[in-house]
Amino acid sequence: MKIVILGSAAGGGFPQWNCRCPTCQLAWTGDPRVSRRTQSSLAVTADGRDWVLINASPDLRQQIIATPDLHPREGSRDTPIAAVVLTNGDVDHVAGLLTLRERQPFALHASPSLQALLDTNPVFGVLDPALVSRHVMTLEVPSTMAGLRFTSFAVPGKVPLFLESGDVEIGRETDMTVGLVIEAAGRRAIYVPGCASVTDALLERVAGADLLLFDGTTYTDDEMVRLGLSPKTSARMGHVAMSGPHGSVTALAGTAVAQRVFVHINNTNPVLVEGSPERKAVEAAGWRIAHDGMEVAL
Question: pTM value?
Answer without folding.
Answer: 0.96
